Amino acid sequence: MREITSSMAGTVLNIMVEAGQEVSAGQEVLMLESMKMEIPVESEASGKVAEIKVNVGDFVNEGDVLIVFE
Fold first, then answer.
1. Which residues are within 8 A (CB) of 56 and not within 5 positions of it... i.e. 6 or more apart?
2. What are the extents of the domains in the chain?
3. CB 47 within 8 A of CB 23
4. CA dist., res. 9 & res. 69, Å (int)
5. pLDDT in tens, 22-52
6. Max CA-CA distance within the chain?
7. With a threshold of 0.70, does the pTM exceed it?
């Protein structure tokens, strides 16, 4: 399984995908907020979302798993 992990600590501001959705490489899947800046999180590869591990408003640390692909 492939995963998307957080590149920094921050708060989940928006989730742009849902479980079962196909995404392509480079597609924005999530928006983090850190130090009052919005940081888009992009998928590094194409695939189908199996599970979203976070919710809007959750605080995440660097390296935390955000999304899992099938």
1. 12, 13, 14, 15
2. 2-69
3. yes
4. 22
5. 999 999 999 999 999 999 999 999 999 999 9
6. 33
7. yes
